[in-house]
Write a structure and sequence with these properties.
The complex is a heterodimer of chains A (about 80) and B (about 725). Helices cover about 15% and strands about 40% of the residues of chain A. With about 80 residues, chain A is α+β, with helices and mostly antiparallel strands. Chain A has a single domain (about 5-80), classed as SH3 type barrels (Roll). In chain A, a hairpin with a 2-residue loop joins β4 and β5 (about 60-65). Chain B is of the alpha/beta class. Chain B has three domains: about 5-185, 3-Layer(aba) Sandwich (Rossmann fold); about 200-300, Orthogonal Bundle (Helix Hairpins), CATH 1.10.287; about 320-525 and about 545-710, no CATH class. Chain B is about 65% helix and about 5% strand. Chain B has a six-stranded mixed sheet with strand order 2-3-1-4-5-7, sandwiched between helices. In chain B, strands 6-8 form a two-stranded antiparallel sheet. In chain B, α4 (about 115-130) links the parallel β4 (about 105-115) and β5 (about 135-140). In chain B, α8 (about 200-220) crosses α9, α14 (about 320-365) packs antiparallel against α15 and α18 (about 440-445) packs parallel to α28 (about 670-680). Classes of the chains: A alpha+beta (about 80), B alpha/beta (about 725). At the A-B interface, α1, β3 and β5 of A face α4, α12, α13, α16 and β9 of B. The structure holds guanosine-5'-triphosphate (GTP) and magnesium ion. Guanosine-5'-triphosphate binds near residues 40, 82, 170 and 537 of chain B.
């Protein structure tokens, strides 16, 4: 389990993941990087919106909502 | 997909910020920073101006300018759009970058959020690469203290080599230090000496190789190593700006372009693709921010805070939507109940004055048509505008602004985004709709927060489905007269409910039309969506109430005078010019009548909407004036009689419902149309924004009216 890499939108609410890889390309990738989502960043999944998508994440002390289109392109390792 | 700026007609707005009205001795100061860090608040406290602030990222999209003086020197301050980066992924970022690069500000203040320093440092470092004349303003220090975050500002200043000032702009804390630091940098008394970012050796080598050639071409106008880096990173938008502002095409230079090809080739041999190279560059900045932040911020591990718990409720599956609707309902209810009494008082006051005016005119022995056109035409229309429209506006707007200041609007966007995604549009459209509640023109401008031209256009075209402050009181008046009346003691409740239904209908229509547009003339897939949810903040209640009432009151009164008075005169004249024994007004109304009846209205109502093009505030007053000049009732001195007047003219509940629907769905007012023209730079899209809501309104009213008739329920 510890070693398992999953996409960020699959991360259970309330748990954290360590960013391993960004599979997004081009503009989306740029945007995600700008928000500080780089390799080895810790991201916590905070809550889903009422319809389940988007999901709010804690990223470097800011709360940021991402649609599954974006969050599925962030691969993380589950840490706690 | 495949819509470009060109094909949609959205050009880059305000390509370069122009500095207005300054003397050459003025220092020009740019105000940059991440969204929602308090730039506009800093701007306001320094300049004493009233730039709008709000607790959501993207509040400011226009570039405000203002002046202040400090120790006998004048400074012109430019409030730049808030951005996470200035590597130019969007128009806003390009505007900010171009101003810092080519607008020659003497000092750039970077406003940072003390509670989120690490992320903010990324932008600060990017700006420091362009210019060293920077002052860092670490704002929101009060909030950081409350969250037990402490920042070693001296150390930060030492590391970065530029002055750092801690502020709490809202309470005015630290602003004197800020002005002082800005003065020192502007006068060159402090020479900032920022360290440069350590890129990896390969990139660094390329930069050093390229720099001398760039220097021979550009001189010291732009930081050479930064420019070299941007060239290596294939930053075409910067090249474009350079050729725009400096009239130089760097790639035409053989030596530079050959060197560049050479560098790229070496990098690719070392395994760097365009993408990984860019990653590497961006990551270097972020890593640097992380290191700096670690060494200056002490954060006593905070447990899940109150915001977290509030959000768990406000955006939860169970309560998210009910609370949203309940909050809106409460606001409408307060507005409906609260507006009643002042409306009545205003009406009484105005009609007392009207009597006095008539006495005055008869004393002056002016010819009757003069006092009729002045008093019965212009003055009365004006009086109706103020007494019917002003109280609901003056109540609704401040309460809504309170929600904005609290930070609730981004939560609305978060809750609703799912549906916007289904409609193939951007979730931030919900924010622009919220701005539309105040004024659709403001809503249209707010669409600049949406980067993708396709989604921005959809936001612009559909903004009119949200009733603005000028149309909202029409809904209230209709609901108050025709729906509350049937519900007895539950009157206010029923009226609130019907307005809620109208608003929800508006949102629903917005989504449907957005989806239709996405599938037809504005084909495409949703673009990237990232939305920051800022912490809740205590609203500045006093300030909000005073500001929004005064700004609004003056605005509405101004518009009323400008638009309502002449409109009243026109109506009076039309009602008094007879052709073939019938007044011009009746002729016109009869002309529209057959069509208007098909959609549940009558000729007068339709005409009132047409004459209301300059401002929706005057629709009801025009309607009242038209009915009165028709002669069915000569005196109208209270709001209760208004209902009677309407009923005498054949109104039923269905007329009221169709009027409400048509209020929600018809052409935008002239101000909004002109704003759309300005924002899209295209008459075509302005025309589409005119026709789409109009057709929607006609279709829905037709269906409602005909169904009601067929079912025989009117
Ligand atoms: N507690 C506290 N709140 C502040 C301070 N400065 C600004 N705010 C609040 O922070 C929110 C954002 O402020 P703005 O001035 O609108 O931020 P901005 O940087 O102009 O934001 P954009 O225009 O969206 O980029 C508002 O609700 C302000 O009232 C401060 O020093 N302390
Ligand atoms: Mg602002």
């Amino acid at each position: 389990m510890k070693e398992k890499i999953i996409s960020l939108n699959k991360l259970a609410i309330g748990s954290s993941g360590l960013v391993k890889q960004l599979t997004a390309q081009g503009n989306i990738r740029r945007r995600l990087l700008d928000l500080g989502i780089t390799k080895d960043t810790i991201i916590e999944s905070l809550r889903k919106s009422p319809k389940g998508d988007p999901i709010a994440f804690q990223i470097r002390s800011a709360v940021i909502a991402l649609r599954s289109e974006e969050s599925s392109k962030i691969l993380v390792q589950w840490i706690e | 997909m495949g819509l470009t700026n060109q094909s949609t007609g959205i050009g880059i707005i305000d390509r370069m910020i122009e500095i207005k009205s300054t003397s050459p001795e003025d220092f020009i100061i740019a105000l940059a920073g991440n969204p929602n860090t308090g730039k506009s608040t800093v701007f306001n406290s320094l300049t004493g101006l009233k730039q709008h602030t709000g607790n959501w990222p993207g509040k400011t999209v226009t570039n405000a300018q203002g002046r202040y003086s400090y120790r006998e020197r004048n400074y012109t301050l430019v409030d730049l759009p808030g951005t996470y980066s200035i590597l130019a992924n969007s128009v806003e970022e390009q505007i900010a970058r171009d101003f810092i690069c080519f607008g020659n500000p003497q000092v750039t203040i970077v406003v940072m959020d003390a509670t989120c320093l690490e992320r903010n440092l990324n932008l600060a470092l990017q700006i420091l690469e362009i210019t060293d004349r920077v002052v860092l303003c670490v704002n929101l220090m009060d909030e950081a203290r409350r969250k037990n975050i402490s920042i070693n500002l001296n150390k930060l200043s030492e590391i970065l080599g530029v002055p750092v000032v801690g502020t709490s702009a809202r309470n005015g804390e630290g602003l004197d230090n800020l002005k002082n630091a800005v003065e020192k940098v502007a006068l060159g008394k402090i020479k900032p000496n920022p360290n440069s970012i350590a890129y990896n050796d390969k990139v660094q080598g390329g930069i050093e190789e390229l720099t001398p050639y760039i220097n021979s071409k550009i001189g010291d106008r732009i930081d050479n190593s930064w420019l070299a880096l941007r060239l290596i990173d294939r930053d075409n938008s910067l090249l474009e700006s350079i050729s725009n502002f400096l009239k130089l095409d760097l790639m035409q230079n053989r030596v530079i372009s050959e060197k560049l090809l050479d560098i790229w080739e070496r990098l690719s041999r070392d395994g760097y693709t365009e993408e990984t190279l860019r990653d590497n560059i961006v990551t270097s900045l972020i890593k640097e921010s992380e290191i700096i932040s670690k060494s200056v911020v002490t954060n006593i591990k905070n447990q899940k805070n109150l915001d977290y718990k509030i959000d768990n409720i406000l955006t939860s599956k169970t309560f998210g939507f009910p609370i949203m609707i309940a909050l809106l309902g409460i606001i409408f209810w307060i507005t409906i109940v609260g507006a009643n009494y002042p409306s009545e008082m205003l009406a009484k006051g105005f009609f007392w004055i009207e009597e006095q005016l008539l006495v005055l005119f008869s004393y002056l022995k002016t010819p009757p048509w003069i006092h009729e056109i002045l008093v019965l035409g212009m003055y009365r229309t004006l009086a109706w505008v103020v007494s019917v429209m002003l109280p609901p506006m003056a109540i609704f707007f401040p309460i809504f602004t309170l929600l904005e200041d609290l930070g609730y609007l981004p939560r609305i966007a978060f809750n609703l985004d799912y549906y916007f995604k289904k409609a193939c549009t951007h979730g931030k459209q919900a924010l622009t709709m919220c701005m539309g509640f105040g004024c659709n023109a403001a809503g249209v401008i707010a669409c600049r927060i949406i980067d993708s031209p396709r989604e921005r256009l959809i936001g612009i075209i559909t903004n009119n489905f949200v009733p603005c402050n000028g149309r909202f009181p029409i809904l209230i008046a209709m609901a108050g007269m025709f729906i509350a009346g049937f519900a007895g003691i539950f009157g206010a409740f029923a009226a609130t409910l019907s307005i809620l239904v109208a608003i929800v209908l508006g949102i629903f229509i917005t989504l449907i039309i957005s989806r239709i547009l996405s599938k037809t003339i504005l084909k495409g897939l949703p673009s990237t969506f990232t939305l920051e949810l800022p912490p809740y903040r205590k609203p500045q209640i006093g300030r909000i109430i005073i500001r929004s009432i005064f700004d609004r009151t003056l605005f509405v009164l101004g518009r009323a005078v400008v638009v309502a008075a002449p409109a009243g005169a026109v109506i009076w004249i039309m009602g008094n010019i007879n052709l073939g024994g019938i007044s011009l007004l009746v002729h016109c109304a009869r002309f529209f009548d057959p069509f208007a009846r098909l959609i549940g209205l009558d000729g007068y109502i339709f005409m009132a909407f047409i004459l209301g093009l300059p401002a929706n505030e005057i629709v009801i007053p025009i309607l009242i004036m038209s009915y009165m000049s028709k002669g069915s009732m000569l005196e109208l001195s209270s709001l209760n009689e208004m209902k009677e007047l309407f009923i005498n003219n054949g109104w039923t509940w269905m007329t009221a419902v169709c009027t409400m629907i048509f209020t929600l769905n018809h052409w935008p007012c002239a101000t909004t149309l002109l704003t759309i023209r300005k924002e899209t730079q295209s008459w075509k899209w302005t025309w589409i924004s005119f026709i789409v809501p109009t057709i929607t309104g006609i279709i829905i009213c037709f269906i409602v009216a005909q169904t009601a008739r067929i079912l025989g329920i009117v």
